[in-house]
Amino acid sequence: MISSILLAAGQSKRMNGENKLVKKINGIPLIKYSIKNILTSSIDNIVVVLGYEKEIVEKFIDKSKKIKLVFNKNFESGMASSIKVGLDNLPAMTDSFFICLGDMPNVNSSIYNKLIKSKNNNEIIIPTYKGQRGNPILFSKSIKDELMNLEGDMGAKKIIDIKKEKIFEVETLDKSVTQNFNTRDSFVL
Fold it and tell me: What are the pLDDT digits (tens) for 100-127?
């Protein structure tokens, strides 16, 4: 089983008081794009980790038996706490899991599927665009315990730096793997 942890707990600090996850692109809230792209891939389920303005973001997420909403009460402490909440809520049958960022709406289902097909015996699969590493990252469940030891707001970068020999990079022709929507300027199309 391949699962996905979608990190959607951040405080949108660079958005001048606006929650980026509910800001619209072509009339559709950013969080809806991110979830749709995961659901249309061959990923089996999504654990959406909410935090900041949980009630507002939750209203924009359609109900599905493939989606589990969870709340990170420590979201202010940084990304590591959200990753841990997501890991704690993965289905027991999960073999591999993505860590996805809620503010990367243009990562489409074909990118997820390409990463899944590249899995083989690799423990960490990272998409790249023109040699630059991006997201989402696919992890084998063998990395789960190390991810549970993360602290602060660095995400999985520390583990990736340590596990260089376990990484397999998949070059994509799609810059979306390196583009997140963190500022108001990101939303200008």
Answer: 998 888 999 999 999 999 988 889 999 9
